[in-house]
Amino acid sequence: MPRSSSGVFVQPAGTAGVPNTLIQSTPYNALAADIGNEITGSLPISGVKAMGANLPMGGFRVVNAADPSGAQDAATKNYVDTTFVAKATAREVLTAARTYYVRTDGNDSNTGLVNSAGGAFLTIQKAANVIAALDCSTFQAFVQVVDGTYTAGTSLPPYLGSLPPVIKGNNATPGNVIISTTGANCFTNASGQTWSVRDMELRSTTTGIHLSSTSGLIQYQNIRFGTCAEGHIFAFGGKCQATGAYSIVGNAQYHMAAVNGSVVANGITVTLSGTPAFSDVFVRAGRAGDIDCFSSAFSGSATGQRYDALTGGAIFTNGAAITYFPGSVAGVARLGGNYF
């Protein structure tokens, strides 16, 4: 059965249609078959019946559909892009070591991958958070902190990877990179994992500890421990470990303290400059805390009590003299504490 240009069926020439007449003639049989083919598998406009066959679209699309609300509803591209894809996005997997940059003129909206004002992050915290969102696999992530003074503390987050991330400053001149906080710790590790901090100077005023670990391990080296409102190194349930030489250039309440945690500084050189004063004590271990510090060399002098071991705390020096730690006042072991 032919159609007009608008798609309307055209009655064949020489035929006359009579209402309520059964179509049996050859032309009208063709018409009936044509119409039948067109409606086979179609859906009534009322939507009250289920389709009985596939609905070929001929390369065209269904448009202006609503977002799905039921389990069997079709989903629009926009719905998939904004909902499913966002939820299904996987972590980026590193295939090589990666370095993020932090600068005083950076911006946390940058990628952090370029050492420039338009590419670097502004805060170490942003870099740490970005690393935490990666799958580092067997590769190491680094945070390169460029020379300058930074006033924000950093909370070290858990991460996915086999190697500890490294936050580093200026290896040759660590005093060029200064973390100076007010009322906050410079670095806090509660991640249960290992982070490494090196090549910078740490300071705090009002309150704040330089390196504080409540869960996990902070490894440190080539650090200049400057003036501190509280203590330089505190392991409260966590662990801090010196992996290389470092220096003490400022006063503090204490240098090392461990409470239900551990501080390890074996076989290294600690250089004290300017006779720093410790208003409380140089090292303290209490409540099952452990200071493990032997075969290390302390160059320079300090004022204050040398050590305090109490309430089950232990300070292990492998038999070093009671004058081993810097200070001007004798140390004590009391209330079940041990110095040995």
Automatic annotation (TrEMBL):
InterPro entries: Pectin_lyas_fold (IPR012334), Pectin_lyase_fold/virulence (IPR011050). This is Uncharacterized protein.
